[in-house]
Write a structure and sequence with these properties.
It is a single chain. By secondary structure, the protein is α/β, with parallel strands linked by helices. It has 2 domains: 258 residues, Rossmann fold (3-Layer(aba) Sandwich); 98 residues, Rna Polymerase Sigma Factor, Chain: A, CATH 1.10.1740. The chain has 10 helices and 14 strands. Strand 11, helix 2 and strand 12 form a beta-alpha-beta unit.
């Protein structure tokens, strides 16, 4: 088998939308920008387009590198590229930074044209259905009337699911990975604790910290540390860190002693330097609010009866944040709605983060399904 090749150097693009959008909250955003990247080539009839939706802390940079010295490829670089499961020799792949993000798309840290200051606390809440609407507008701009597939993991999987319900004619395949039809009470609780860490940080200033020349780093750091624990499995953490001590002996204090403490603090510090706290608040609220069955008398079967796409649903055995049972709820509802669905439950020690990992069985399932889509396009 030919080894996959790197997609190489990539660059971001920006789409400016002057037409207003009415968000689910009722707020009207008169103007917004979306930053996105594309990989591969759109074919003559635009039938090979793939939309990749990012998770909570993701963005438009899904594959490739920005320079030859760039040590950080896109967040799904193992999945997207020539010869990879999402093969850019066959597909035209789009990754974008969602509205409300902090990597170039209009969000809380962007300048509000009405005031000349960052939006901050004035930026409205956005829901998954709002992201799908802006993604559809970008597809229209690019001349794509129907996606061969919409793919996403975690919060990205929720976007893919929403696409299949809200715009059923515009998506042929829907790939929902490590996701859920809605959050459990426990998940909402985790999100609220993370938000409280940010909201109670003295440097938060009600969300308008930009004007105070500060950042709520402590709160965001704690929020990320908490979130990161939920993305890992107990077995995975145990195998990687166990109860290892940095110095080999107890120090009898509250500084970093265990390797797991060092790891979490490093992850928290790193994240607090590159992500916006207001965006984190927005993203977790979008997670909490997602519930496509809500407008169908809480009947998920009725909601998914709107879909026309074929589905691939993937879960991971040690993912307790979005457990296999939640994926099976989606599968069960799709079968009851008489929709075509394939399901895979992957053995993995990586917990929720498994959807980002280069796991051979997982990649084989993705590759086989994507090859099937490519054959449909070629016919």
């Amino acid at each position: 088998m030919q080894l996959p090749r790197s997609i190489g150097l990539v660059s971001a693009q920006k789409a400016v939308f002057d037409e207003p959008i009415t968000l689910s909250s009722g707020t009207i955003l008169p103007y917004y920008e979306l930053v996105y990247e594309t990989y591969g080539k759109l074919n003559a009839d635009a039938s090979n387009a793939i939309l990749v939706c990012h998770a909570l802390s993701g963005n438009h940079h899904a594959a490739g590198r920005y320079s030859v010295d760039d040590k950080n490829p896109g967040w799904w670089d193992t999945m997207i590229g020539p010869g990879k499961p999402i093969d850019t020799d066959k597909f035209f792949v789009i990754g974008l930074n969602n509205l409300g993000g902090c990597h170039g798309s209009t969000g809380p840290s962007s300048i509000n044209p009405a005031t000349g200051q960052p939006y901050g606390s004035a930026f409205p809440l956005v829901l998954v259905r709002d992201w799908v609407e802006t993604q559809k507008r970008l597809a229209d701009r690019l001349g794509i009337t129907q996606f061969a597939a919409v793919i996403g993991g975690s919060l990205g999987g929720m976007q893919a699911l929403r696409w299949s319900i809200t715009h059923p004619e515009r998506i042929r395949h829907c790939l929902v990975i490590a996701s859920a039809p809605k959050l459990t009470a426990q998940n909402i609780a985790f999100n609220d604790v993370a938000r409280q860490a940010i909201l109670t940080d003295p440097d938060f200033h009600g969300g308008d910290y930009y004007q105070h020349n500060t950042l709520p780093r402590r709160g965001l750091r704690l929020a990320r540390m908490l979130g990161h624990i939920t993305y890992l499995s107990d077995d995975g953490m145990g195998e990687k860190f166990g109860r290892l001590l940095r110095s080999g002996e107890y120090k009898y204090g509250f500084e970093v002693e265990f390797e797991i403490e060092s790891y979490l603090r490093y992850q928290g510090d790193k994240f607090a330097e590159v992500f916006d706290a207001n965006t984190y608040l927005l993203m977790t609220k979008a997670l909490d609010y997602f519930d496509p069955a809500r407008h169908y008398n809480n009947d998920l079967v009725a909601a998914l009866s709107e879909a026309k796409a074929q589905f691939l649903v993937v879960s991971f055995t040690t993912d307790w944040r979005f457990s296999p049972a939640r994926s099976k709820e989606i599968v069960k509802a799709l079968l009851a709605a008489k929709r075509q669905v394939s399901y895979a439950e992957i053995e993995s020690e990586h917990g929720h983060d498994a959807f980002l990992m280069e796991d051979p069985p997982y990649h084989a399932i993705m590759r086989n399904y994507m090859q099937r889509i490519a054959k449909e396009i070629a016919q």
